[in-house]
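Hi L., both proteins are below.
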Amino acid sequence: MTPTPRILILGGGLAGLAFAVAIARAGEALSGASLKVTLLEAQAFKSGTPNPLDTRASALNLHSVALLKDWGIWPALAPECGVIRDIHVSHRGHFGSALMQARDLDTDALGFVAENHDLGRHLLERAQALGVSVRAPVRCTRLRTEEGSPGVETEDGEIVEADLILLASGVTPEWFEALGIGIQQRPSDTHAVVFNAIFPGQQGGCAFERFTQHGPLAVLPLPSTRRQEQRYNVVWSVPDDAVETLMSLEDEGFCARFQDAFGWRLGAVRAVGKRSQWPLMRSLACEQLRRGFLLVGNAAHTLHPVAGQGLNLSLREADLLAETLGRALANGQPLARANSLRGYLQPASTEQQFLTNSTDLLATLFNRRGPLLDGPRNASLALLDLVPGARAQIARLGTGVRHA
């Protein structure tokens, strides 16, 4: 009797759960075949609803929404999301701005903003409904790369083996070394400061991408929880040497600094929530498959958050890997062989390189470079607002549907 193929996923964050759902669906669709999917997460999954000012959020492009519809998640998630109908792009202290609108693409929205706890809850529920074995908290301490099936060892001494192991998060430098995989890293000398903010008025569904002297400042619409209040998720790039002082400010002082960086397009900021920060570093694994271990999600790539494409890339990859594994299972191929995964590895690598280069370019394009370069760039931004076709092309790239 042929043993049931086993997929093990390490990491129960949004990316790990997305891979679990996509792969479990692929196994479910196979006639006369079965697939066992197990997910291990180091932390216990949180329950309950956080304070609306203290949530974290992720941007979803239209391609990701289409995937979530296919996975049976979007109908329940959609009412909980903020809608991006317009995107206003500007450069602090310079002339020129552009407004990209959903109507440029003859669509109702350019994207959506999901709060991570909502998206994670729906992904987890869907994974469990599809028969994924979810175990948390289970902390893995070592990879087993010896001959035979790849496996991991938990802190309790348990050995968990599988035909293919996906490393979605928590990959330590020692694990990269054990696999013999190098990683390209490039620090940006900036930190991301992330928080929610409240402004007066009614939520209009406009996202703001404001470029400052030290990097981009993204302000993304969230569903309002009170009348005449607009709630936004903010991702602010600040210099490494300024982040400690900024994080230590009381709310009043922090709001003043944020208001100065963002401006007054939404009026006076009324309140901010809990702030978190981390260093912004671009990373890209030199290889993704080695000895039955496949790097996915943040373990394979970390993008600058300027365009909000990190999670969208992971969702796209989850769908592609599920399709590839489905073909391998249908053909009776070993899941961890490079030949079996060729349909995933090359397209995923190309997409990662494209988005890494694109987000790097956006992150550096609006750095202060002197009047000889600032002038033409600002004029181009102003011209963009006058050319509907150019606006539509850029907006279409952001929706993620170019390969759909």
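That was the first. Here is the second:
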Amino acid sequence: MLGISAAPGGHMTKRLLLTSAGTSAAENLTRSLRAGDTGMVTIGCHHDRFILKKSSCDRRHLVPRPGDVRFSDALRRLVDEQQIDLIIPTSDIDVGAVSDLRDDLPGRSFLPDHRVIWLC
């Protein structure tokens, strides 16, 4: 079960972080998630401010590019500050980067075992 936090009005809100926010894959996922559960907060991040601007997430954050030495600290800080319950990477590069960091991130990630990712 996802971690949840109380929202105004007493209902519970899931806080999801979607990587590569603003891309077609992330936008399709955001729409699908909202269709299934209107009580969630979507937070998007991307390294390109122009692509990020296209995101329909509730909140948007500019982060360094995956592979940049600053990416892991920025993602950890974002997960902590925004009280993220679940991280959903939406590109192959993001899957690899989040998988590498999964043991160091305070939120959960929706990924198969690290060995399976690198095998694929």
